[in-house]
Amino acid sequence: MHDHSIPVRVYYEDTDAAGIVYHANYLRFAERGRTEMLRAAGFEHAAILHDTGIAFTVITMDIKFKQPAKLDELLTVLTRMVSVGGASMEMAQEIRRGETLLIDIKCKIACIDKRGKAARLPEAVRVLFKS
């Protein structure tokens, strides 16, 4: 399962006193994966906001914590587009240590304008990820 992957090293700042990744930091790793997937497809958040006035926001997220990651481990964040609608996208993500699945994430991302109101996905983004 993946359309895009990035490596993420676990740093001291990512962990609790026991050297285990603090649960909220997996959200940061996943955000990096989604952002880099868009960047690899030719879309940067800042440029989209500047050019279209559109930003992305997470509206739902389902996370299954299967195993913990630890200090200094090298992880891989895998991101896959599941579906693209008029104003939202659904993505599936996995965070792995080698072949071992640590975290399984399903999320829905919506488009909003500068006032925070729902907006349509930019056409170029919708076309690319629907194909």
Task: Give a quick set of tags describing it.
131 residues; alpha+beta; Thiol Ester Dehydrase, Chain A; five-stranded antiparallel β-sheet
Describe the protein's architecture and organization.
With 131 residues, the protein is of the alpha+beta class. It has a single domain, classed as Hotdog Thioesterase (Thiol Ester Dehydrase, Chain A), CATH 3.10.129. The chain is built from three helices and five strands, in the order βααββββα. Strands 1-3-4-5-2 form a five-stranded antiparallel β-sheet. A hairpin with a 3-residue loop joins β3 and β4. It starts with a strand and ends with a helix. The mean pLDDT is 92.
